[in-house]
Amino acid sequence: MVWKRTISAKALEKAKSVAVKVDDKVIFIANINGNLYAMDAVCSHARCVLGQLDEQKLTVRCPCHHAVFDLKTGAMLEPPYVSPNAPKEKLGLKTYQIRDNIGWIEVDV
Ligand code: FES
Predict the structure, then answer these.
(1) Is the CB of 80 under 6 A from ligand 1?
(2) For ligand 1, what atom is nearest to the CA of residue 62?
(3) The domain 3-104 is classified under which CATH number: 3.30.1490.110, 1.10.1670.10, 2.60.40.60, 2.102.10.10?
(4) Of 1, 20, 33, 39, which has the maximum CB count within 10 A?
């Protein structure tokens, strides 16, 4: 395990979600009602950075072609919309363990 510090727990609580750079990765982290989540923030379709969190469904939508990812598992729930005949392959994203370590959000990369 390699825990890396990201942002303060208070900052994440206020923002709810944010994409953070950790070494060579960009990771989407979220605090939903005290539950912490972390997954790759770079879309598996065409590498846009994710950002549209749905707190009720625990999903994140890609702003570029609207693929939807499960925040808990990283699974792609809805494929990107590019054209009606485009392949509907569903490529998920990696998730990470995340913790609050004395006021700092850390991700196991
Ligand atoms: S880049 Fe995310 S859906 Fe296309």
Answers:
(1) yes
(2) 2
(3) 2.102.10.10
(4) 39
